[in-house]
Amino acid sequence: MGYHVDSEVGRLRQVIVHRPGTELKRLTPANRHELLFDDVVWVHRAQEEHDLFAGRLREAGVEVLYLTDLLAEVLREPQARDHLLSVAFDEREHGRAAGDALRAMAESMTTEEQADLLVGGITTREVLDRIEAPHSVTFHVRQLDDFVLTPLPNHLFTRDTSCWVYDGVAVNAMRKAARERESVTYEAIYRWHPRFATVGFHHWAGGPVDGRATVEGGDVLVLGDGAVLVGMSERTTPQGVERLAARLFAAGSATRVVALAMPRARAFMHLDTVMTMVDVRTFITYAGLEPLPSYTITPGDGPDDLRIVDHAPDRMAATIAEAVGGPVRLLTAEQDLHSAAREQWDDGCNALAVAPGVVITYDRTTTSNTYLRDNGIEVLTTPGSELGRGRGGPRCLSCPTVRDGA
């Protein structure tokens, strides 16, 4: 199979999702902010909601791949297993004695158990249920319920860490420390999993650590015909946008990147929290989204040169229209300030297109859903009262790996 994502709204063929598991059971009122959640999650209900979401995808003809299945499968590959466990139990994090002991403990597990460990984390108490306490100061200073390996609850939002742009994938360096190890998971899957290892595709990002050059998939919209829209948010930096653009241009996979300078605020965490595509040249946007400064990036005269044109905020829509080759339609439901803010917080603008003019949204965003229907968009709803507690909607929950052009 050739992996490619040629638009935001063309027929969706395949996605990677992550069903909630042990990692979400680790959330507490005390650690939720550190782990980037606004609330603790009722995991059983979140799993039910996720199953319904996956069912919606299958009903639309989409092949659904589960991240933990891919991870367990790639752990059967010796190189992948060595890489993943070496990063998880690095002596710089755990100390030499504890690192070796923890690595040996993990090696004794089945691949399914290893996958759950790498995503769900493990506490001191749980380690001691399996092995004797390592002779290590690093280990001994931990309390029984301290995390020895921190869980990765944000793996739920598969879009951010891995995003496909035309004929390549960006395994992104994540902005927040709580998400850094997520990149290692995808790096191993794309490098060693038999499903991907034998297929040629480009790699647009430099891996888990790239300094300040961070890009997250929630900020990246594939407009089609060689154009890409990127939000420079609290998670995606200008340095990351320039690097992404340069690599896309060097491969001939894209010809134009439009970057939007977004407010640095939790409510504007990613571009797709305030704007997503729902049909050809059609976007749903948050009522509180003011016109933003934009920058058109195109290839320069030399192989490493970029040509950059600045645009005033009132040119935002026109700049996007130039990128997509025609007039754009911005659908913004009319609401009072308070209603609009609540709807956006509930991911009303985070629609996932499964075909042109057909989207999946959360059922609780009734105003946005009604407005989309009134404007000719077919809306398939799915429950999200628990899934949305980490501030992510259906687009965030999915990493498309195969999507047609629009």
TrEMBL record:
GO function terms (MF aspect): arginine deiminase activity
Record-annotated membrane-spanning stretches: none
Keyword Hydrolase listed: yes
Pfam families attached to this UniProt entry: ADI
Reactions catalysed: L-arginine + H2O = L-citrulline + NH4(+)
Catalytic residue positions: C396
Pathway: Amino-acid degradation; L-arginine degradation via ADI pathway; carbamoyl phosphate from L-arginine: step 1/2
InterPro entries hit by this protein: Arg_deiminase (IPR003876)
First-tier enzyme category under EC: hydrolase
Family: Belongs to the arginine deiminase family.
PANTHER family: ARGININE DEIMINASE
The protein, known as: Arginine deiminase
